[in-house]
Amino acid sequence: MPVHAVLLHALALVLALAGVRKVIDPAPVAASLRRSGLPSAPVLGRLLGVVEVVVSLAVLSTGGAVPAALMGLVYLGFLAFILSNKLRGADVPCGCFGESTTPPGVAHIAVNTVAVAAAVAGVLDPSDGVFGWIDEGAVGVVALALVVVAGALTIALLEVLPGTASSALEQADRARVPTFSLKEPR
C-alpha cells in the first residue's frame, strides 16, 4: 500500500467530515466567503459541502485517477482561498469545520499542500478505494486503521489545536507574566 494512498484516503475522510458539516450548517462558510469578498449565499456553502462529500466518497469508495484529480482541485481551491486572504492581510476564518473564530494558519496551509501533493500522486499512481483494501488482508486492515488515525489527527490539528493555542496565548497575556532580558539597561 503506497504511502500516498493512505494520505489521500485520510484527507478524503477529512474532506467528507468538512463537507457534511457544511451541508448541515452552511452559515460559517458563507460568512467566510462574504468576508473574503466572494459570493456568499448559504446555498453556496451547502453546495460546496455537497461537492466535498461527493468527491471524498468517490476517492474513498472507488479510488482512481479522476477522483484523486477532483480532490486535488478542491484542496487547491482551499489553498488559494487561504493564501489570498493571507496575502491581503485578511484574518478570515475558513469555516471548514463549522463555526470558528480562528483564521487558518500554517497547519491549514501545510495540510492543503500535502493534500494537493497526495492527489497528484494519486493521479500518477492511482489506488483502489478503501473497500478494495479489505482483500489485502492484514496490510489492508492496517492501512485502513492508518487512514482513520491520520484523518482524526488531521482534524485535531486543524480544528482543535488552533483554538487551544489561541486560548493558551490569551491566558498567558491575561496573566501578564513579567519578562526580563539579559541585556543591561541603558
Automatic annotation (TrEMBL):
GO BP term, example: methylamine metabolic process
GO terms for cellular component: membrane
Transmembrane segments: 38-60, 67-85, 105-125, 137-158
Subcellular location: Membrane
Highest taxon in the source lineage: Bacteria
Alphabetical keyword list: Membrane, Transmembrane, Transmembrane helix
Methylamine utilisation protein MauE domain location: 5-124
Chief place of localization: membrane
Pfam families per record: MauE
InterPro entries: Methylamine_util_MauE
Membrane topology reported for the UniProt record: Multi-pass membrane protein
Protein name: Methylamine utilisation protein MauE domain-containing protein
Organism annotation: Actinomarinicola tropica
